[in-house]
Amino acid sequence: MVRGREEAGTEEIVYDTSQLISFQKSGKSIVNGFTTIFNIIEFPKALDLKELAIIYPTIDDYEESLRISTQLLKKGTPIQAVDVITAAICIRRNLTLSTKDKDFVKVRKVRNNFRFELVK
Prior knowledge:
Layout: E1 2-3, E2 13-15, H1 17-26, E3 30-36, H2 37-42, E4 50-55, H3 59-75, H4 81-93, E5 96-99, H5 104-110, E6 115-118
Parallel strand pairs: 2-5, 3-4, 5-6
Antiparallel strand pairs: 1-4
Helix pairs in contact: 3-4
């Protein structure tokens, strides 16, 4: 479920908390793209960003998260649950995650179809 935009899919980027904080610090007020409800909970000031759509996970997202988490654990590289769910949301919707968090490299090692960009 996506809240905040009539036509979801016009922008293919999901911004994580680190990016939302950067936008707020830089004074940016309009951000075309998506974030997850978890990122909003972590950083509620992001609600002030206009044009930012919020994705709520579905049961299928949680099931995909569990598969990813299990694979990461088998490789000995577990990451935070919120990050796994965020990755699953991106994978299932064919969206690219924009992040400063290097933990997402670990997800890419177990899911080739996970698209992300590391931002400095």
